[in-house]
Amino acid sequence: MADGSASIGATLRAGFSDVAGATRDCWGALALAVVVSVAGGLLPPGLRFLATVLAGVIAQGALFRRAFDRQGGFKGLRWGRDEWRLLAAQLMILGLVGLIGCILMVIVGGVALGVARTAAPDFDPGTIAGWQGAFASAGPAGLILVVAPLGSLAILVWLALRLSLSAPATVEQSGVRVLSAFPLTRGHVPTLLVVGLAVAVPVLLVSGALSLAPQGPATVAVLALCTYFYAMPAWTGALAHFYRRHAVSQEA
After folding, report:
1. Please, are residues 18 and 26 in contact by the beta-carbon 8 Å criterion?
2. Which of 40, 47, 73, 181 could bond to 78 as cystine, CB 3.0-4.6 Å?
């Protein structure tokens, strides 16, 4: 526990302590990421998703190049091989997570159908009222309907954290790294989870406050500024520190 606490503390310090320096050196790329994110909010859902991925790659490329002393453009503004590699890695991760997510949805749906059929063999699966009636009569077995989705979500979060060192490995090794970065996080998911939650708390608080305000480009811009000028530098700084430490340990 002491080693885990020390690792969490060191990783958080590495991430938070470099936010000011990272934003100073990469503010051009971070500002562009904000613009792309805000503009993406005006697009249809599919294009909006692509804009979000693109904004993340622009910011990550600049920040990880800086973290590993790689050549960058003016204030991080550059689209080069590192960005193409990061984009490929991100799309591969999204595809893998999406595939696992679909499988888990099928499993959860099967569990829900099984519980409903057991509780009410003659229920009508074609109506919401039929499902509600079946679940209402399921009794304690209905708890499975809560546990199964939460378990699926936990699996997806675990997978995302196991793959979280893909981006720093991709930039540092100058090649697309996805599954090859998987071993670096073995046994360290709790540490990464705590670090990720600590970084995300201010963004979540801002998001909650903004949900009470009229929605529009201004609220999207405020959230994007918080994300790319605080959370992204803190998270990438923490991951770069974590990657250096555990990549060396794995080589040794």
Report:
1. no
2. 73
Condensed to tens digits (0 to 9), the pLDDT of residues 197-232 reads 999 999 999 988 888 878 888 888 899 999 999 999
Q: In this predicted model, what pLDDT tens digit does every residue of 186-196 receive, in sequence order?
A: 889 999 999 99
pTM of the model: 0.86
Q: Are 226 and 202 in contact (CB under 8 A)?
A: yes
- Written as one letter, the residue type at 60 is Q
Rounded (10°) CA dihedral 12, 175, 30, 247? 10
For 88, 199, 201, 204, 231, the CA distances from 13, given in Å and listed in that order, are 30, 11, 16, 20, 14
Angstrom distances, CA of residue 194 to CA of 7, 165, 215, 219, 240: 11, 15, 30, 27, 16
Taking the CB of residue 54, how many other CB atoms lie within 10 A of it?
A: 19
